[in-house]
Every structure is written in structure tokens, then in C-alpha cells.
Amino acid sequence: MPIDITMPALSPTMEEGKLAKWHVKEGDSVSSGDVIAEIETDKATMEVEAVDEGKIGKILVAEGTDNVKVNAVIAVLLQEGEDASAIGSGGAKPAEAPKAEAKTEAPKGDAGTLQYDKGTSTTSTAPVSNSNTGSSAPKAAASSAPAKSEGGRVFASPLAKRLAKEAGIDLASVAGSGPKGRVIKADVEAAKSGKGAAKPAAGAPAAAAAPATGMSKNQVMALFEEGTYEVVPNDGMRKVVAARLTESKQTVPHFYLTLDCKIDALMAAREQINAAAPKSKDGKPGYKLSVNDFVMKAWAIALQRVPAANATWAGDSILYHKRSDVAVAVSVPGGLFTPVVKSADTKTLREISEEVKDLASRAKSKKLAPHEYQGGSSSVSNLGMFGIKHFAAVINPPHGTILAVGAGEERVYPENGQIKIGQFMTVTLSCDHRAVDGALGAELLGVFKGLIENPVMMLA
């Protein structure tokens, strides 16, 4: 039976991508492990591998095509003994039995490869935080009634259960279209849109109204004289950044805490450490620590010392993390990445410095694997190098906090009746009030202040 090769989901939030390149052509034979295509998203370029032997019967999406929806059929693989006549219009002929819903597999190291499975629509490798979720397979033949076990339990995929819970939909009222009537993602989305049978879950709040989208493109353009502007379509990265930050501000109850930190001791320690760096033959130092390296280290330790604040909101639960996995905001053309430094509290300043430099370099060339920019419980965003004194950052879900760091500068301050001059920087903590309350956020920021003002305490 011909196998549909579909657009894989590189992450749970991916909705579309670009088919950057085909490594095969129609008629080519492929074996398990052969790279057949490259998929490009806003974050990275990933390879699609064959997991079965066969012959490429038909390529349905041309190389270079953008905005290809996840689970759209991009090619058809013929098995031994089959020829092109087995392919119906638009893809392989339907199987006699409905297709199984897509599985999610853990990533294979940092190889960053995606695979498809025989008899399924796609297999994605994209961990987020501490759980793995994936897109569902295309909708199979609709079931006439919701699937229930003899005990009344509804059969549904984990993703469908999560989506239904978030939308306040009773799964018992949703007609499943998966194998044996199993409720899948497509069924829940149909129920949300009013096209499927669904009713609010008992005691659950009514589904929220559609979020405001603001003015349309035509409405905005109508305000300006034609010819006085240039229209530049948003690329995939900008679309995702806009969607994620809009979601964050609309669904995460932010509150903000601000402190001034005196960094004279930090600047002196940084100067001493950098001065001790070994020099190469051309006089280049072996390392050069930045203020942000100290910030990352201090923030990671603070999260360990106030473990209740090392938290992320997970719907009906809060996840309290044992490690200090801290993301750092990296600006790239057209958007930003947030690569994660794992267990940052256990690493030296030099190790943090080298890792951040490596992650930032590969982020700018889109060479990061998904597990390198997903997960973490908190972020650090530093605009001090641009001279910004103070700002409030938007939380990157599902993180519980993000620390915004301003520029270090000389300021006049009073001490014991005398006027003095010292180096200060302003930091602002944004907290998700569902997971981190005001007093808890204040405690966390206070511990950070103590560490950053007395960097020797990071060794205690």
C-alpha cells in the first residue's frame, strides 16, 4: 500500500513550514535512514529521513514551497511491487483501516532529524519543557459516536485531552474520528469551531471569545498615503514571535518587580578574572567574561535557593523544577531565539560564557536543534549593551519568570549621610502570577541582588 509522506511537525507549536529542499526525485529508491528532504521553520532547518524502503512515486509539494501546513501530504512512497497507478489524485489511496494518530519520539541526541512511520502521517521530534507532544494525524473516517470503554471512559489521545481541557470541552460529547472512534486533535478543533459535537465540561468555564486581532492589513494601509511606505511580508519567524508574545500577554497574568543592584564588586571581579586569562601567541585572551555571564550564574543560583519560584504553570498543576535551566534571549535578524543553558547553577562562569557564545552564534545561523531552545523554567533578557536603563520583558511560556537587565552606569547615591558615586544596574522581574506570587517573586529577586552585589557569594 502506498505511504503518504506528510509535512512533519518540528515542535508542538509549529503550524506550517517551508519545504526547503528535496534530496530525492520521483522514481528514486530510498532505504531506511536516507535523507529525503529538508524542512525549514522560523527556528531551524531539519532533515527528514526515510524509515522504510520504497520508491518515491510522486512529489506533491515543490522544492522551495513556503507555508506548507503540518500534516499536508508532500510526497508518496511506493512499496515493492507497486507502481504509480496505485496513487490516487492528491496522494496515496486511502487505507482500509483509519490511520493511527501521529506519535512523538524523543530526539536522537542533537542530530535534529525527523522521521515518518509506515502507516502514520508523521513522527515529530520536538520536546517542550519536560513533556513531549506532537501534532495529530489527518482526520480519518468519522465515527458516528464518541468512543467509550465499558466503564464509560472516553478514548482520546493525550494531545486531544489537553486541548479539550483548555477549551472547556467535554470529551464525552465529541465524536471521535481516530482508530476505533478515538478522539484526536482534529475532532477537538472541530468541536471548538462549532463544526463538531461538543458541550462545555461540567463545572468548566465557557470557552473564551476569540482573541482580538487588531486592525487588518487593509485597515492599516488605508490610514497612509499610497507610496509613502514599503510593504514587507512577515516571514515565519516574525509570525511565530508575534503569535507567541500576543498569546503570552493575553493569557499570562504578568506582574513586575524592579530593583537597583550595586555592581562595583562585580565589575572589579570581572576585571580581575579577565586580566588573568591566558593569552595566545597573537595576544588574544583565552576568555572574556561579560556582565551577563555573572547575571546568568547568579540567576541560576537564586532559582535553586528559592525553589518555589523555579516553577512553570501547567494548567491544573504547577511544575517545580529541580534544575536551573535558564534561557537567554538572543536577537537574530527578524526575531529572537531563547536557547537554554541547562543546569546553569552547576557551571562555572567560563563554562556559561562559552556555552552562551556558542548557542548565540548557532542561533543566528539557525543551526540549533529543538532541544537547545525549548524547555527551561526562566529566561534572562539583557538590553544593557544597547544603553537601555530599564524595561519589562514579556514572559516566554511556559516559563514562570523572565529577568530583564538594564545597563550598568555610574549613579550618585547617599550612604551614611555622605554622597557617593557607584556603579548600578536596574533589573526588572516579570512573573506569571499563577505560578509565582508577589512575595515569592520579591524573595527571588532579593536573593539575586545579594549574589550579584557580592559575586564571591556565588561560590558559597
UniProtKB/TrEMBL annotation:
It catalyses: N(6)-[(R)-dihydrolipoyl]-L-lysyl-[protein] + acetyl-CoA = N(6)-[(R)-S(8)-acetyldihydrolipoyl]-L-lysyl-[protein] + CoA. One of its GO terms (cellular component) is pyruvate dehydrogenase complex. Its EC number is 2.3.1.12. Residues 96-108 have a biased composition (Basic and acidic residues). The keyword Acyltransferase applies. Coiled coil: none annotated. Forms a 24-polypeptide structural core with octahedral symmetry. The pyruvate dehydrogenase complex catalyzes the overall conversion of pyruvate to acetyl-CoA and CO(2). It contains multiple copies of three enzymatic components: pyruvate dehydrogenase (E1), dihydrolipoamide acetyltransferase (E2) and lipoamide dehydrogenase (E3). This is Acetyltransferase component of pyruvate dehydrogenase complex. It comes from Devosia lucknowensis.
